[in-house]
Write the C-alpha cells for this entry.
Amino acid sequence: MVTSKNTTITITLICILALLFVSSCGNSVTTAPQEPDPSLTPTPTEQAAIQEPPTPTTVPSICEGLAGELEIHVLVGPAEAVGLEPESVGSIPFSVITSEEPFLVEGSGGLEYAAVLAREWGSFEVNMEMSGTITGTCVGDENAGELDMSLDMTGSQEIIVTYEGVSQTYPWEGTRTFNHTFPIEEGSTLEGEGYSIVLHLE
C-alpha cells in the first residue's frame, strides 16, 4: 500500500511539473516581426530641381554715356564772297540722357561771335548772338552707331561789308533748323551753303 501511494504521489508530481513546463514554454514563445506592407510605406516625394532661367546677356551700346558737342561754322559775310571759308563761331554740347533704349539725346548752349576780317578790297565785320537746342536719338551696338539730331538755332546776326570804302549792313534774325544723322565718328560733318556743323566726341 505504501508503495502504491508513493507511486501515485510521484506520478502526480510529474504531471504537475509537466504542466508547469508546458505553460512556461507557451509563454516564452516570441512572435516573429512582421514585414511591413510595401503599399503602406510612404514614398518620399522627389522634388524636381528648379532651374533658374538663363540671364539674358546685355550687349553694351556705344550710346551709353555718350557725350560731345556740335561745332558750328558759318560763312562770315554774304555767300557770294568768293574764296572765304566758314569760320568757327562756337559749339553746343550734348549728351545721352537715358541709360537704356531708346537712348535720348539733349543739349543746349549759346553762341556769341564778333570778328572783323580784312581783305585787300575791304572788310567783313560780323556780330552774332544765337542759342542752340539739340534733340534726338542715338542707335548703335558696341562698336558703331548713329546720332539722329535736330539742331534749332535762334538769334540774330549782323554783318557789315565794306567794299572799296562803301559799307553795307546785312541783318538777320530768326530760327533755323538743321536735321542730320551723324555716324558716331569724331569729325563727322554736315555741310551746306555758308555753314558746316562738325561732331566732336568726348
